[in-house]
Amino acid sequence: MIEAEHLTKRYGNHLAVDDLSFTVGEGQIYGFLGPNGAGKSTTMNIMTGYIAPTSGEVRINGHSILDEPEEARKCIGYLPEIPPLYPDMTVKEYLVFAAGLKKIPRKSAPDMIADLMETTGITDMQNRLIRNLSKGYRQRTGLAQALLGYPPVIILDEPMVGLDPRQIIEIRDLIRSLGRKHTVILSSHILSEISAVCDHIMIISHGKLVASDTPENLPLLMAGTNTLQLTVRTDEQTLRSILNAQDAVLSYTLEPSSENGAWDAVIRSETDSDLREALFFGCAKQNAAILNMQLSRMSLEDIFLELTEDETKTEGGDENGSHLS
Q1: Which DSSP string corresponds to 52-106?
Q2: Is 261 helix (H, G, I), strand (E, B) or coil?
Q3: CATH number assigned to the domain comprising residue 53
Q4: Structural domain boundaries enclosing 270
Q5: Which of 65, 111, 180, 239 could form an SS bridge with 72, CB 3.0 to 4.6 Å?
Q6: Cβ-contact 319, 207 below 8 angstroms
Q7: Which of 203, 220, 237 is at the close of a domain?
């Protein structure tokens, strides 16, 4: 569906996108994550033909965005972070205007506009001025514009920015419904929404793709170690002797527990080991009662922060890292 090969974009001495390559398959919702300045919007603008790369190529359905721009753009619907709306137009006037810009035949435009207003839930707003719409309805109007022509690929740049919780839920449900008919690429800083909506997640850092996988597999790629949280009713030395006897333990920290006469331990071990059974028998031999044992997995937030740590510290630039898949 989309093939990006060795994309590079320079603005003077600033490297916004650094030899970026990825493939987007058909019929899925892709999440595109990265801190401010990571190169997400630049990459999206290259994919949609708004700006040209310094080097590299993007193909949409086999059409090069540089050599066949008109054919490639017909395959894409784009909603930028700030929707290109005209506040003095009504919703319907705006969509008729946008349909004309996209060269949609006049005979088919009215039915298409009516269908897309129904799809995006703005039929009741069609005669209202855009300036009088809420932020949520403006986003829906911009999305209806992106869907004109029924393109197979929909690219959404931060579609949930500035929305209240109810509007976020509504837009999330709408994006899910679009995923049944379109390939969707979604950029967002709301990590929980990316995890809830997307089938596949790509994380960009310093202009490079540093991770690409499903929300379920990313923690496995990132883990490197398992983390086990343990609360045991015993003294510190006994707990240390139990942990030191386990070869798979890489490191651990101890501190007094809020439970009377107990200690809390955070244990890091190798990914291919499961310490729970061994620790159970080890504690049983020492008459140490286990009050809590919980195996932890990295959250999407943990993964995002670890992969983009250098960039989030500097609050800018474009990121660096190694592609994990």
Answers
A1: --SEEEEEETTEETTTSHHHHHTTEEEE-SS----TTSBHHHHHHHHHHHTT--T
A2: coil
A3: 3.40.50.300
A4: 224-296
A5: 65
A6: yes
A7: 220
How many angstroms separate the most distant Cα atoms in the chain? 82
Query: One-letter amino acid identity for 216?
Result: E
Tell me, what's the pLDDT at 324?
Answer: 36
> What is d(CA 86, CA 111) in angstroms, rounded to the nearest whole number?
22
How many domains in the chain? Answer: 2
Question: Bridge-partner residues for 63, per DSSP?
Answer: 60
- At 258 the pLDDT is 93
Q: How is residue 188 written in tokens?
A: 């967002």
- Three-state SS for 125? helix
For residues 95 and 87, give the distance between their C-alpha atoms in angstroms, rounded to a whole number: 12
Q: Average pLDDT for consecutive 10-residue bins of the chain (325 residues)?
A: 91 91 89 84 90 93 90 92 93 97 94 96 96 93 95 92 84 88 86 84 87 76 70 96 91 92 89 82 95 77 68 44 35
Which H or E run contains 183? strand 183-187
Q: Cβ–Cβ contacts within 10 Å for residue 14, how many? A: 12
> How would you label 231-265 residue by residue, b for 16+ Cβ within 10 Å and e otherwise?
bbbbeeeebeebbeebeebeebebeebeeeebbbb
Instruction: Supply the pLDDT for residue 319.
Output: 39
Q: How far apart are CA 296 and CA 206, in angstroms?
A: 29
- Residue 219 is predicted with a pLDDT of 64
Residue 61 falls in which region: left (phi positive, over 0), alpha (psi -120 to 50) or beta? left
**pTM of this prediction?**
0.71
User: How high is the pLDDT of residue 209?
Assistant: 87
